[in-house]
Write a structure and sequence with these properties.
alpha/beta, Rossmann fold, 2 domains, elongated, binds NADP nicotinamide-adenine-dinucleotide phosphate
Length: about 325
């Protein structure tokens, strides 16, 4: 039984932000989208950015930028929407001296807090509001009357109102339209880093090395190879659908028996050998007709191996979690 806390629009009250000023530091991928959504939700915002190229887009959006120190002095809530590696420098050089009792600092990723990059005064609130999408989608979904999911945590609650304030911010940006999940900031940080370092690194390496082996060693045409690997966007679409229905069901419902058998045939061997050896094995199976023979035999056995794979996946722990996600995060045109 999954017991996780998820917040929706009805859990958040924008009125708590009514007389407060929200200072947004940074106007990049997250900063611009979140600042514009806050402004459209009638929240009083200030934006600070270095005299650098992003400053032009602040001005182009009709916002009068302020110096960091002014933002620190005038804001009740400070959202740090700059790269994690810049948090320490910006806090130490521009914020530390100006923090005042009861202010709230918000980060969009727990990295600098987890790795203790700067000192936090005891008399401020500190919260996490971490989107699960880049700024483009945050802005686009908001304008489409929807929102993207995000994670929320209260790290320090000096005012006793930190949760109410961060939920209201989440509502103003659109996160509570999709679902704002409570996640401890250290878990958010480590999970995010794990996915980048393990999952994404494996995907990038598999694609790059497959391309090079297939084109240079096996002489497949480069354009067709890359289209097949990912450039047609088929893989991307499959993963989007998997986010909706689950990693097993997406293949069971949409993939041919040949595709499903290919997955089942190689599942156990996946990631057990260097990429070039695995590729060699798969190509050998195709060129010699071995895969074709195995597929014929699998058909005669009523797709025994395929059924066993999906039974295993569909009864694995991730399936219960997938169902929870499917019923708790709100999809487009399905929110309150
Ligand atoms: N990107 C995502 O999809 C995503 C998703 C979830 C969470 N997050 C989190 O959101 C936060 C912001 O990430 P982002 O992707 O939006 O970053 P970003 O687009 O790379 O941030 C660029 C902004 O930061 C400013 N900036 C860069 N270095 C700076 C420095 N040393 N001092 C002051 N300002 C500096 C830039 O201004 P100038 O260069 O013009 O000075 C610009 O306004 C991070 O904590 C990140 O982990 C990002």
């Amino acid at each position: 039984m999954i017991k996780e806390k998820i917040y929706y629009d009805s859990d958040a009250d924008l009125s708590i932000l009514k007389n407060l000023t929200v200072g947004v530091i940074g106007y990049g991928i997250q900063g611009r989208a979140q600042a514009l959504n806050l402004r459209d939700s009638k929240i009083n915002i200030l934006v600070a950015n270095r005299s650098d190229h992003y400053l032009d887009s602040v001005i182009a959006d009709g916002i009068e930028p302020v110096p960091f120190e002014d933002l620190a002095n005038k804001s009740d809530i400070i959202m740090m929407l700059i790269p994690d590696q810049a948090h320490q420098e910006v806090v130490e050089n521009h914020l530390q001296k100006h923090f005042r009792k009861g202010q709230m600092l918000v980060v969009a990723h727990g990295y600098s807090l987890t790795f203790k990059k700067f000192k936090i005064p005891n008399d401020i609130d500190v919260t996490l509001l971490a989107p699960r999408m880049p700024g483009l989608q945050i802005r686009r979904e908001f304008l489409n009357d929807h929102g993207v999911p995000a994670f929320v945590d209260v790290i320090q609650n000096f005012s006793g109102k930190a949760l109410e304030k961060v939920l209201a911010l989440g509502k103003a940006i659109g996160f509570t339209r999709a679902g704002l999940l409570h996640v401890n900031y250290k878990d958010e940080t480590e999970l995010d880093l794990f996915c980048e370092q393990y999952l994404v690194a494996n995907i990038v390496k598999t694609i790059k090395e497959s391309f090079e082996e297939l084109v240079h060693k096996y002489h497949y045409p480069p354009v067709a190879t890359l289209m097949e690997l990912y450039a047609s966007a088929e893989l991307g679409e499959v993963l989007i659908e998997a986010a909706n229905v689950g990693i097993g069901e997406v293949f069971q419902k949409n993939a041919s028996p040949t595709c499903q058998f290919g997955i089942a045939e190689y599942y156990e061997r996946a990631m057990t050998k260097p990429v070039h050896e695995s590729i060699k094995e798969v190509i050998h199976g195709l060129k010699t007709g071995q895969f074709d023979n195995s597929l014929d035999k699998e058909g005669e056995k009523n797709y025994e191996k395929v059924n066993a794979l999906w039974n295993m996946v569909n009864s694995a722990p991730l399936t219960e979690t997938q169902k929870w996600i499917g019923t708790h995060f709100k999809k487009k045109n399905n929110h309150e």
